[in-house]
Amino acid sequence: MKLDLLKERISREFGTPAVVIDLDRVDRNIGRIQALCDAAGVGNRPHIKTHKSPVLAKMQIAAGARGITCQKLGEAEIMVNAGIEDILVSYNLIGAARSGRLAALRRHADVTICADNPVTLAAYAEAAAAAEAPIGVMIECDTGRKRAGVETPKEAIDLARIVRDAEGLEFRGLLFYPTESGWDAAQRFHDEAVAGLRTLGLEPGIISTGGTPNLPNIGKLVGATEHRAGTYIFNDRMMIACGRATEEDCALHVFATVVSRAGPERGILDSGSKTLTADPGGGLDGFGHILEYPQARIGAFAEEHGFLDLSRTNERPDVGEVVRIIPNHVCVVVNMVDQLIAVRGGDIVDVLPVAARGRLV
Amino acid sequence: MKLDLLKERISREFGTPAVVIDLDRVDRNIGRIQALCDAAGVGNRPHIKTHKSPVLAKMQIAAGARGITCQKLGEAEIMVNAGIEDILVSYNLIGAARSGRLAALRRHADVTICADNPVTLAAYAEAAAAAEAPIGVMIECDTGRKRAGVETPKEAIDLARIVRDAEGLEFRGLLFYPTESGWDAAQRFHDEAVAGLRTLGLEPGIISTGGTPNLPNIGKLVGATEHRAGTYIFNDRMMIACGRATEEDCALHVFATVVSRAGPERGILDSGSKTLTADPGGGLDGFGHILEYPQARIGAFAEEHGFLDLSRTNERPDVGEVVRIIPNHVCVVVNMVDQLIAVRGGDIVDVLPVAARGRLV
């Protein structure tokens, strides 16, 4: 059987734990969100924090994405170096090292960055001066998640005014990540902020919404020009739990080996918190879903051990058996490894470096 | 002030988040456990999973450690390559890739490995045959933690018999990791197992105990010949919580920058679950202890954002401020980064690669 052969090759040629992606499913996931954006008349700007791979980013662009979103300057550096030019960094870039590198990066690409406070804007103006080139800035707006982002339209307008008046900065637009129930609040925030911006003579060229959980809401914000989603390219247990994906949409599996069966109702995988991560996935039961033993529970971790509770399953794996795991949160699992093994039609076809991993700044 | 200058240099030259170790404290921590082992007449075999650095492993050996413990074959490969020869891998190494690499490694060093089942032993015998050199094996014994390890002395004896009779394998001893209240159980297990081994003509050369939480118990197991502890070199919030370390014993800090203060009672650090990890540290409050703002709580994460709850603190940081964090669990934090910035006397003196990180097999 093809799957057994694949497991055998992964185990022999790479060893487990191995992070394996199915490119057929990746293609399908990329196509699905592109179609959703196209249908809504909204640009697609996928977030590459999920895969950190220029190869996969270029597949997203080839399918119709207008550019990409990064969460770190170091990720943007890798992507610019790989030839990708239309990049939004959705982060407050603060600190001397970042300003210097932002200036250097600006000489190679027209990167757009985000701000929710004046300190950040001052750093951006410094970088623009050093680069001798204007830097585009979006204002990040919070509409209920209490993450980054100004809390009121007035603050957004005040920051946009600083951008307008600062030497070297260009106002580009507004960044939102509405909660699932928060689209009315986001609309009110948007409408009030845009009205205020217009009194300043500013027109937001980009109105960005975000999130794979928000896929059904693409285009819902009247005025939105693009959407940024990351997790959808692979999906995970969280996306299954919130109804955004099925098991068949999950394009990334951790291949793990059963290395111990010291008791009848327990076993140990060679994938612990240094592989699957302790991310609870917003309250999921255990730390991953084992396709071959759906009733088995990865109940606890050591760093290189995943402890299996087999009390609820009659089928139990033997020592040496290789299983496939859908992780709770795929973005943090990719960040643990240096390579993704790529499969197509059940065959290993490529090994993709997680090139933008470990970029600290 | 020296600390301010250090923060400024870290921020300017490396950027945050940065993982910084204080070598003065590292020296002190290394010396303390070596003295405990010496006083107990027990060998010291530190676990390098915590730091994954050959430089630090060699500091431990220079201070008196008889060798090191690794949790992965890939870690052992890096350490052997760096010239360290006395290595115990405390893991069931299963899978074709591992057997082949174990054989290759055996040609360069006399690595001792562990087993809790016969499948593993068969793989080791294959590796020994391929290497044309004997491979030393310890039997891992569980005495209550329900991690890896056989559950009864009889199983340990049965496995030791297989080792004795297998071409190419050498019986080396028994591996324990007693629970804090489980030393009596470990002693009974040990005594019964050793008596049985002697009837087979086997004498355990190594009786190994483990764990930084067990530092006060070094030498408590009558018959123990060595102890393996990892976390003590840096310590963390977990070690403070269990009384094994003080804040001043913590030699590793994550330097992070406040990148947003969108509300009066909240703030955002540039260190999220991809830096500090979601490890709850066995039920600690929040995801790290901020030295400058001990009442602030890192209550939640995005991947590159740590969300600060400032409601309990009157002193609150400004955007741009750099703070130092003691993480919940230091071993998993080191595993997130590619380098450790080393400080001595408050000055940056070295940058240590986390050389054994990302070794999957």
List the defining traits of the structure above.
homodimer; 361 residues; Lyase, Ornithine Decarboxylase, Chain A, domain 1; TIM Barrel; 2 domains; 9-stranded mixed sheet; 8-stranded parallel sheet; 10 helices; 32% helix
Written account of the structure:
- Two copies of one chain form a homodimer.
- With 361 residues, chain A is α/β, with parallel strands linked by helices.
- Chain A has two domains: 2-21 and 238-353, Beta Barrel (Lyase, Ornithine Decarboxylase, Chain A, domain 1); 41-235, Alanine racemase (TIM Barrel), CATH 3.20.20.
- Helix content of chain A is 32%, strand content 24%.
- Chain A is built from ten helices and 17 strands.
- In chain A, strands 1, 10, 11, 12, 13, 14, 15, 16 and 17 form a nine-stranded mixed β-sheet that branches.
- In chain A, β5, α6 (118-131) and β6 (135-140) form a beta-alpha-beta unit.
- In chain A, α4 runs parallel beside α5, α5 packs across α6 and α7 runs parallel beside α8 (183-199).
- Chain A is elongated and about 70 Å long.
- The mean pLDDT of chain A is 96.
- Chains A and B meet through α1, α5 and β10 of A and α1, α5 and β10 of B.
Question: Quick summary of this structure?
Answer:
The structure is a homodimer of 361-residue chains. The first copy, chain A, has 361 residues and is an alpha/beta fold.
